[in-house]
Specification:
84 residues, alpha+beta, Ribosomal Protein S8, Chain: A, domain 1, 5-stranded antiparallel β-sheet, 2 helices, 31% helix
Length: 84
C-alpha cells in the first residue's frame, strides 16, 4: 500500500518534523522510516498562480497496510490543524 501526494503550503522541514513526531527516524539516505512504513520527502517546484508562488513538497509514504492505516490519520490531523 502506498500514498504519493504533493502538499502545498507546508515547508519540507516542518513536514519532516511532523513525520519524526510520529516515530520515524532519518536514515543516511534521507528516507524516514518506522516500524512497517517509510516516507520520502522531496522539495518540488513552487506552485504558481499569476505572481503568487506557494511551496510544494512531495510525500511518498509506503509500507504495510496496517501500519499505514495507523499512521495516516495521525499525519492528516497534523496537516489539518491550524498553526501546524
Amino acid at each position: 500500500m502506498a500514498l504519493d501526494v504533493t502538499l502545498r503550503g507546508i515547508p519540507l522541514w516542518l513536514l519532516r518534523e511532523y513525520i519524526e513526531e510520529l516515530g520515524a527516524q532519518v536514515r543516511d539516505d534521507g528516507v524516514l522510516y518506522s516500524d512497517g512504513w517509510q516516507a520520502r520527502l522531496t522539495q518540488v517546484e513552487d506552485f504558481q498562480v499569476g505572481s503568487l508562488k506557494v511551496g510544494q513538497v512531495r510525500l511518498e509514504l509506503d509500507g504495510e497496510a496496517a501500519s499505514l492505516a495507523a499512521v495516516r490519520p495521525k499525519l492528516e490531523k497534523k496537516l489539518h490543524r491550524a498553526g501546524g
